[in-house]
């Protein structure tokens, strides 16, 4: 028997505003798409709409850049207020060169600009604003999971995903910032292959793989569909949330 | 209209031996699984069976470690012959600490042990052997694409994939080492969102995203199914092979 996993991007998710509940939007879009959640469904949601629903906006005209932010803005050519926001969301600056500001986000992610987004964020009141990552993406995923369970009766998996650059490869891929109801990291340390040798691959980033695959149909920009339902395959492994995917900086093997 | 992408792992691919042609095995497995290739199919093949079919084995008893290999073996605790093989496949050693040898592969990949695999490689003749990456994974993908086109009449996409560790995240994900017939990298530099702002995400690693999603059903070890067919969605973008995914080391933004 083969194995199947299907990703379906839902058309018809409306623009999300602060305070909007995502679960009813998803349930309505599922119905409009003639689809439904099942026991093995994983709902992959773009970070952007989670942040919007949680009101994670910052108004740039309220931000007074620190001296350090101004210095990094001069180096990178970025808006000093955005740099100040980035610093406020980060523990460490890893790289600052023209056009590039890579930091370690307070939640451990190594990423450009602390994941702060200026593109495609409507600003109805004429003020410039930026969108930060959710305060706690695992908690966001758990809350959406519970809301979907109440609305549909299905205890599905949920992933909050975002696109990340990689150090040695061109192009972004999506990873999982937060999750609930799935084994975000599958740990097979100690397992052996059929010849009795210990497996070389022992930890699999399941949530990141699902987030990456979902992003293919999620798209971005004008054609983006920020909710994708994965269904058909759920590994038998203990549930872990996405904290398990963040490598402690002192165990980083690459530098 | 939503968008759908489905991954199907094919049961019944036999053990691959040097000189075996993969296309007939895939065509037979498709038929046995009641499946078929379509105009938007992408056949994702594990690097391991491509390397086996190309006979990319090295016999450890033929390898005489250099002084540098012996030194790195002492540091890492790895077999000096494997280290010698790793060095022969690499341009640069990025990190050597106990249990870890990260190199820049001759094709530009930054990875552990130059992707050389000792697990799950049967050794009928009683000699220890290791399995190297294909000589040119893009060429392997192109050859498989042509063989599948001749066998089925469908000009499908092909990806040769392997699992990679990441510097700042736990667990492996699959990436694309080689591809043919798809836009491995989608470049949207210059595009704007519906508010007229330039998109922040401008290059998408499509082949890596498909490889990552396929790996969810591909599995590994005893339960592994080394061929996965993705179907339902092919982006409209110019074809590029996987050389486009390797970031030149002098433009690495992270260190």
TrEMBL record, chains A, B:
Domain Coenzyme F420:L-glutamate ligase-like as annotated: residue spans: 13-232
Domain of life: Bacteria
The enzyme's E.C. designation: 6.3.2.31
Gene3D superfamilies: CofE-like (3.30.1330.100), CofE-like domain (3.90.1660.10)
Name of this chain's protein: Coenzyme F420-0:L-glutamate ligase
InterPro entries: F420-0_g-glutamyl_ligase, F420-0_gamma-glut_ligase-dom
Molecular function per GO: coenzyme F420-0:L-glutamate ligase activity
Keywords: GTP-binding, Ligase, Magnesium, Manganese, Metal-binding, Nucleotide-binding, Potassium
């Amino acid at each position: 028997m083969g194995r199947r996993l299907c990703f379906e991007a839902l058309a018809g998710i409306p623009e999300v505003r602060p305070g909007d509940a995502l679960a009813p939007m998803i349930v309505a879009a599922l119905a409009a798409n003639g689809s439904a959640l099942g026991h093995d469904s994983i709902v992959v949601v773009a970070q952007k709409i989670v942040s919007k629903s949680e009101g994670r906006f910052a108004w740039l005209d309220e931000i007074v850049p620190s001296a350090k932010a101004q210095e990094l803005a001069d180096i990178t050519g970025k808006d000093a207020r955005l740099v100040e926001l980035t610093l406020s969301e980060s523990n460490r600056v890893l790289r600052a060169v023209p056009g590039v500001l890579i930091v370690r986000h307070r939640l451990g992610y190594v990423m450009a600009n602390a994941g702060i987004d200026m593109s495609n964020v409507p600003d109805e009141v004429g003020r410039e604003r930026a969108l930060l990552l959710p305060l706690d993406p695992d908690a966001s995923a758990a809350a959406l999971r519970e809301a979907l369970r109440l609305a549909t009766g299905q205890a599905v998996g949920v992933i909050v995903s975002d696109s990340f650059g990689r150090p040695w490869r061109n192009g972004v891929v999506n990873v999982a910032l937060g999750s609930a109801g799935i084994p975000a990291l599958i740990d097979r340390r100690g397992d052996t292959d059929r010849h009795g040798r210990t497996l070389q691959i022992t930890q699999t980033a399941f949530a990141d793989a699902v987030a990456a695959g979902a992003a293919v149909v999620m798209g971005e920009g004008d054609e983006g569909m920020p909710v994708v339902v994965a269904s058909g395959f759920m590994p038998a492994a203990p549930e872990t949330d996405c904290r398990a995917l963040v490598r402690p900086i002192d165990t980083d093997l690459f530098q």
